[in-house]
Amino acid sequence: MPTDPSSAPQLVTVRAVPIELCRFMKLGGLADTGGAAKQAIAEQQVTVNGAPETRKRRQLIAGDQVTFGGRTLVVQLE
Question: What domains are there in the chain, each with its CATH number?
């Protein structure tokens, strides 16, 4: 059975770590705006490394995985 490529984790390159969760979600296209990212986090719809995350200012480092709306992004340092 083939794997759906849209469900595979995507690497998102950032210039520096740590990076705030809400900023990373906007940068990676998981949210259209910072406000939308903050709302999704507040509503416990976002996981970081498989665990629910409610801190919008959570600091992410290289290798962290953020999942929202069926998509997973991985922080990669430039």
Answer: 7-77 (3.10.290.10)
